[in-house]
Amino acid sequence: MFEDIHALVEFAEAGSIARAASRLHRTPSAITRQMQRLEAELGARLLDRSVKPPRLTPLGIRIVEQSRDVLKRVDDLRALAKDAEPSGPFRIGVAHPLADGALVEPVQALTKRFPKLRLQLLSDNGLIAKIQAGQLDLAVVLLPVSHMAPPPLVADIVATDRMVIVEKGRTRGALTPTWQALSASPWVLNPPGCLLRAALLGTLDKAGPPATIAAEIHNMHLQLAFIKAGYGRGLLPERFVRRYAGGAIRMLKPKGFELQMSIAIVRAGPLGSLEAVAAQFKHHLMTAFAR
User: Fold this and answer.
1) Do both 43 and 143 map to the same domain?
2) Most CB within 10 Å of its CB: which of 49, 82, 210, 268?
3) Phi, psi of 251 (to 5 degrees)
């Protein structure tokens, strides 16, 4: 109910559902559902929906005034608890290209340092949208250097890496294929929605006919297995290739191809007593990716 009260106050201050959603990093439909849920809980109509845009009813105005006092008291409680030992759920999202063994130690370090914490890990796509919807506390994502998290989200860079084109290992000293040859070959890539995939395909499309996508796989280890089997070429982080590929994979460096990426922790803002958890997680990630 507290989150619904917060949404009501934001609506009153912003003047519209859309602006309230922007302030809270949520979708307008999510704010609408919160308004409806609060009205059902109180058994009263708070918004006059006979006008466009909706506006507060007289009762809604009185409830907003009292709700501001409630929020102020909660903020005071949070300030008192800021230095308290972190406890309860802490929801971390991990982008598919980063979901490998390098994350085990950072996560284990958090559970040892904060025994009252209950970690919840999710490897998925659309993590930034999940942060905006309040479904995650933070997420570790992979972004091209030229892209950052949309404001007002906060992004802390943990490390940088570069993407490399890889193929099944061949004779040492073999010539790097031309962009035309690369465009004509089959590919094993992330599914649509990946910015890194889009950057590669944009380059390939300029060189020849649209590339053939032989497999669309989120999991990098499975991508690597298909590439080793000669199923197609792929695009993988160089750190991952050097760690797991061995001699069965050849990294290609075609002319003009340089796709740098940032490994970043993205979140919506301050986390109260969980700030210490976020700081420790960032520290351990930086150590893990520096190896």
Assistant:
1) no
2) 268
3) -90, 130
